[in-house]
Design goal:
Order of helices and strands: EHHHEHHEHH
Distance between the termini: 40 Å
Helix content: 55-70%
Structural class: mainly alpha
Radius of gyration: 14 Å
Shape: globular
Largest sheet: 3 strands, mixed
Oligomer: single chain
């Protein structure tokens, strides 16, 4: 992945931001997120997602193109590709996430630039991802 261009949609940037935040602060929560990804999407998607996360950290010059619709993670064989990725709600989340991190649809950023935008968001708002609010709400609903 280090020599190619990665395509990401807003939804997956939000998930990666949450992943990044958890990996830095809480190993137990990070492991739990990996388990959730495995249960929801299977080992193949979870492993690919983890490799994307690692590539972003290890390859600061990796080119990341911001796309609308299916991205590199979706295209690896996500079982929800047709059911959830094309829903209006999901695209609204894409737009919101891009605005949150000051990213432009069609823009190309380096991995370093993308991670800096995520870090800046955390510095300003004390949460790594807007998805943390959603995850907290889901956790609250289960009790």
């Amino acid at each position: 992945m280090e020599d190619s261009r990665l395509q990401l949609r807003g939804h997956h940037i939000g998930v990666l931001a949450l992943y990044y935040d958890l990996a830095k602060d809480n190993q137990l929560a990070y492991d739990h997120m990996n388990n959730i990804l495995t249960v929801m999407y299977g080992d193949k998607i979870q492993n690919y997602f983890a490799s994307v996360f690692t590539s972003l950290q290890d390859n600061p010059k990796l080119q990341v193109e911001i796309v609308n619709g299916l991205d590199s993670i979706c295209m690896i064989g996500c079982p929800r590709q047709k059911s959830s990725c094309s829903e209006v709600k999901s695209y609204d989340e894409d737009t919101h996430t891009l605005n949150t991190y000051d990213l432009t649809l069609g823009g190309v950023y380096t991995a370093k630039e993308l991670l800096l935008k995520i870090k800046d968001f955390k510095h300003r708002f004390r949460i790594g991802s807007t998805r943390q609010v959603q995850v907290a709400a889901m956790a609250f609903e289960t009790y």
